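Re-run with default settings, no changes from the original entry. Doing this only to confirm the output is reproducible before filing.
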Amino acid sequence: MEDPDDLYMEDIPGVKEALQNNDTAAAAAKIQENLKQQNNIPLNIAITGESGSGKSTFVNAFRGLCDDEEGAAPTGVTETTSEVTPYPHPNYPNVMLCDLPGIGTTKFKATKYLKLVGFEKFDFFIIISADRFRENDVKLAKEIQKMKKKFYFVRTKIDNNIRDEKRKKDFNEEETLTKIREDCVQGLSGLGIKSPQVFLVSTFELHLYDFPLLQQTLERDLPSNKRDTLLFVMPNINPEIIIKKKKSFKRRLYWLATLSALGAAVPVPGLSIAVDVAVLAGAVTHYVHAFGLDVPSLARLSDRTGVPYADLCAVILSPLAAAKITTELLMKVVTQVGRTATLIAAEEVSRFIPIVGIPLAMGFSFATTYTILKSILNELADDAEKVFVKALGLNTSV
């Protein structure tokens, strides 16, 4: 029996009415527009902090880029950001991370600083420090709070602290992390922030420490329509986030298959297949990018982890991963999914049967697209998890 999440997505306004009026073209247009909007919901993230705190490296890590890669935010020990610099996500340009000037490097007070950088356009602020948070950070946080925006304190370069502490005979990682966290919290409390939450992060090892907790917190605090936007750009920091991405994609399967079915309602030879291929290509490209299985993402993962690109690809089964998504490749994969060739043939034949043909064709088209996309999604999600395990050198039984 199907999971209800596999077969349902929230209603799309106007679709039911269009179908009741037998206006399949209008229904298809509304579904296409809704899916397009979902894939282009803007998310603007502000990254700020004092000079040398690691803002630019955090921006790069969040976007899955290496510091020396083309398009990466410039990094250095001195302040490299003198104005608001937007950095789009390489696969999702609707998601923008903005590297803001460190407030300590400007001549503006916190209030004017926020107006200068255009605070109203940001969904939330991440305030970064490499050691302790200072008075300027707190002033900024208080002004952000007054303007009813969310902010989060992130303490970076934790890997450096752990490495230094390991030299001590009585080293205990958990105790070290607790002490760093408590010191930050006490410092912020002393400067007037009530019950501050501090996230300890290593930008070179996002899967460790508090970055997963930060991701969960951001997801919880965002409006519901922006949660998937954040989810799809988030690096695969643990198997749980891969599972979340898969579930989110499954909730969209119903409308993608419905869109395919509406294409089958027009009795023109080959039209439904063309619609299906367009639907498949868009969805599969989205899957591949969100799971980090496109060639550039895998190459970056190889650079960051030191695991050879060939070794990462060796654990991948889907022919759609680490490949250019073409019509020819899609059709080859489609024919390998169980019973789809039979369903496609049945759809083409049934569309020209008087009276009952079109409803039959629509049913076959829905079943075909749904079956294909679900199979591809499951395989790509499995591949993403295997790549994650391989990249981190984990035991496959973990």
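The radius of gyration is 24 Å. The beta strands are 43-49, 85-88, 95-99, 124-129, 150-155, 198-200.
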